[in-house]
Amino acid sequence: MILAELVNFQPTGKCIYNQKFGQLDDDSPLINRFISLIPTLDDYDSGVLPIGKVQFIYSGYDDLLFVACADKTDDVIPIVQAIENMKVNFAQKYFTLIKEGKDDPALFRPFRDDVDKALASVLQPKITVPTQAEASPSAPERAATSATTTKKEMIKIALIGDSGVGKRTLLTLLFIGKSGTPPKLDDTEMVMKKGPISDKYNALLIIIPNQMIESGKTQFLSNTDLVLLVNSSVFKDVMATRKIYETVKSILPNAHYGVIANKQDEPGAVEVDAIKKVYELPTIGMVAIDLTNYDKLISFIEELIEKS
Prior knowledge:
Layout: E1 3-8, E2 14-20, H1 29-37, E3 46-51, E4 54-61, E5 64-71, H2 77-93, H3 95-99, H4 111-119, H5 132-135, H6 139-147, E6 153-161, H7 167-176, E7 191-196, E8 201-209, H8 210-214, E9 226-231, H9 235-251, E10 256-261, H10 272-279, E11 283-285, H11 294-305
């Protein structure tokens, strides 16, 4: 993120918060170009607009637009998550001031802490490859390393399905695990959450409704390792998400795929074997509200990820 700015457009047009990173500034032709295109955005709520070698990642909240600049080759997923975190913090602490017309910059200075916190994961230094000597520790060092914690592998998982099929419940189940502590989720259709889901894996989980795929908003799927197609086990829903699978497969031909037949406890649920025949993919029956299904779900995910 290179420029963070909060402007009170009405009634004064006064800049009430400003924080800069890197070399771009307010007078950059790229930023001026993006500002000029704001009225033409198809979706004010969220999106990515590439201009030259920079991509502008934006997300709206009421009359405010939160924008981050990134290199055109950067992964937008962690940046989007950072913006969403900023939005939540700002809404809780400062939106009332905006509505009251207060624009003293001193009132908004503490927002810097929220910006810094949200960007912390995005601005982590890149990992360097160790030299051969560094990569080959002595036997005592190897023993000491094995005795300590093993670093978890990071994977990206997309939960895709229609509204009401249980995608949020499944995400909550994965993060609760055996801890019993549910994650805090924003009240939005698309949700991203990062953290440990098992002893072996950390995960960036993203919930994407079918409607987003149908409307062409597929940029958030980039670099996805595993796609879980979630169904409520109702025949109509099974067939609708089966169509979505074809679209996603064309975008992510190398990803692993699996099907979750959720709500198997409800009357009229289509049997797991029948759903598996529709998709011709590994399929698991699930009742996501039952926490005892955690081990079953994790085993299913690990088998899909580790499948050669």
